[in-house]
Amino acid sequence: MSDFNGPALPRNAANYMPLTPIQFIERAASVHPDRLAVVHGPRRLKWHEVYTRTKCLASALVHHGMKYGDVVSVVLNNTPEHIECLHGVPMAGCVLNPINFRLDARNVAFCLRHGAAKMLITDTEFSDTVAQALAMLKEEERPMVIDVDDDLCETRGQCLGSQLYEQFIAKGSPDFVEVPLADEWDALALCYTSGTTADPKGVVLQHRGAYLNALNNSITWGMERHPVYLWTLPMFHCCGWCFPWTISALAGTHICLRKVDAAKIFQLVAEYGITHFCGAPIIMSAFLAHTGQKTWNHTLKMMVAAAAPPAPVLAGMQRLGIDVTHVYGLTEVYGPATVNEWKSEWNTLPIEEQAKLKARQGVRYVAQEGFMVADPETLKPVPRDGTTMGEIFYRGNLVMKGYLKNPSANEKAFAGGWFHTGDLAVWHEDGYVQIKDRSKDIIISGGENISSLEVEDILYKHPKIAAVAVVARDDEKWGETPCAFVELKPGMTATDEEFYTWCQENMVRYMVPRTFLFETLPKTSTGKVQKHVLRARTKELTKATFSAKGGLASKL
C-alpha cells in the first residue's frame, strides 16, 4: 500500500469534517456580526441575530422531540422564517421539506404523508389549502403544526397549530450546539417535483451536494463578498437553488419579497443596491412591462432558467442595465448545474447573435464531474455538430441521492451509471449544449421530428407575442401536428390566418402550427408554462373546432 494512502496517514477529527452548507451561517455571524443579513419590509436583521434565531429554532425542534433524520415540512413564502428553516432544520439534524405553496390540497397531503413529516411550519396565507390537506391525513399521519403569521401577508388566514413560530423559537436556546452530521451523504432536504399526471417524486438532496452547489453559485456568477440578493425566486424551489447558503457563505444580504411586483422591485433595487436575483423568464416580462423609470446606475445581474430570452427581451434587459446569465438544471441536480458561461469576445456581436448564443444551456458547473449529450439507449455521446440530438446526462456530486421510496424510478433515472434528465439537446462544437425539447415534447409529424422549442423560438420573433407554447396535437393524417398557444401583448389582436401566413414565411413547412389558440398561458409558481395543461386542452379540441379555426387543415 502506498505511504500516501496507508494507515500511517488516517482520516481524523483534525483533518476531516463532513461538508455541509450549514457551517456558512456561523462564519457569517462570527466574522460579520453587524452586517445587514435580512430585510423584510420594515424588519432588519443582522447576521448575529439571524444566527441566534436559527439556533433557537434548531434547539426548539430538538426540545420537541425531533430526531436525527426526521422530516420537517414547511409551506412558506419568501420570508425570514423560511431562511431560518433552511439553516435551522438541518442544524437540528432533521431533513427540510420545502413544499410548493401553489400545490393543491391533495398534493400537499401527499407530500406530508409520503415524507412522513413530524412537524409542519406554515404561513397563514396558505391556511385554507393546508387545512384541507391536513384533513386528508389520518390522525397518526398529521404533523405538529407551527404557524407563521407575517404582518406583510395581505391575505392572512386562520392559525392551524397550537403556537406561533415566534412562540416556538422563544423556547429554544441561543447556546444550542449543532447536532453533529454523521455523514455528508446524509439527507439535507426532500424536494418534491411537480405532480402533473402522477404523484410527485420526492428528490432527496444531501449535505455534500448542497455545500458544493452553494459555492458553485458564487463561482459561476462571479459573486463578490456581500452581495445584495433579491428573492424573486421561490425559496421552496430546489431550496432556492442553494442561494440561501450562497448568501450566507458570502455574508450578503437577503431582500425578501412575498410576491413579484415590478414597481416594488424597481424601488428595492434603487434603495438597497440589489446586485443579484434569479427566476424564470416571466420575471423579465414583468420588468419590461413596467412603465416606471429605472433609478439605479449599477449593473444588476439576473440568473434565468427555463426558456432562453428572445433577442427583443434580451435587448430590453440590457437597456435596463441587467446582465442576464442563462442556466439549466433540475431539482435532481440541486437547481442550476449547467451555465451558459459567457465569453467577453461575444459582447461585440449584434444583439441577435448574442441572443442565439444565450439560448444555449452551456457547460457544466465546476463541481459537476460528468455531463454529456448521448444516445439514451447506448449512452454513446452524440457528435458535437450542433445537429444530432441526444439526451442530457449528469454524473457527479451535484446529483441527488435518489427518489424517496421509489426504487423503480431510481433504477430508470440512474441506468448505466448516469442520471437521465429526459431533456433532449444538441452538442455544439465548442462543447456548449442546447436543449431542443423534453423527450415527451418532441412532435412527430408525418415522420418528421419537430422540436416544440424551435417552433417557439421562431414565434417569439413575432412582434405581437408576449408568450407562446407549442405542444403536439393528434392528427389522423400526420399523426401529430404543432398546436400553438399564444399570449398576445396588451392591446394586441390577431387572427389564425395572420399567424399561419407569418409562420409559412418564417419556418419550414412541416413545422408550421395547424392550430392557434389565443389565451393566457397557464404557469407554475416559478413562471414555467404548464405544458401538461395545454396538452390536455388539445385533447378537448374536436375536428369541428379545428375547422372553425380558419380551416387551416386544407392549407397544409
Features:
single chain, 556 residues, alpha/beta, Rossmann fold, GMP Synthetase, Chain A, domain 3, 5-stranded parallel beta sheet, 30% helix, disordered C terminus
List the helices and strands and how they pair.
Elements: H1 23-31, E1 36-40, E2 43-46, H2 47-63, E3 71-75, H3 80-91, E4 95-98, H4 105-115, E5 117-123, H5 127-135, E6 144-148, E7 163-164, H6 165-170, E8 187-192, E9 202-206, H7 207-221, E10 228-230, H8 238-241, H9 243-249, E11 253-255, H10 262-272, E12 276-279, H11 281-289, E13 300-304, H12 311-319, E14 322-330, E15 335-339, H13 351-358, E16 363-364, E17 370-374, E18 389-395, E19 402-403, H14 407-413, E20 419-427, E21 433-438, E22 442-445, E23 448-451, H15 452-459, E24 465-475, E25 479-488, H16 496-506, E26 515-518, H17 531-540, H18 543-548
Parallel strand pairs: 1-11, 3-4, 3-5, 5-6, 6-7, 10-11, 10-12, 12-13, 13-14, 25-26
Antiparallel strand pairs: 1-2, 8-9, 9-19, 14-15, 15-16, 17-18, 18-20, 20-21, 22-23, 24-25
Helix pairs in contact: 1-2, 1-9, 2-3, 4-5, 7-9, 12-13
Estimated structural class? alpha/beta
**Spatial arrangement of strands, main beta sheet:** 2-1-11-10-12-13-14-15-16
Distance between the termini: 72 Å
CATH class of the domain at 16-257: Alpha Beta
According to CATH, the fold-level topology of the domain at 16-257 is: Rossmann fold
Q: What average pLDDT do the residues reach? A: 90
Query: Total strand count, please?
Result: 26
Shape: globular
Strand content: 15-25%
Q: Return residue spans where pLDDT drops below 50 for at least 5 consecutive residues.
A: 542-556
Largest sheet: 9 strands, mixed
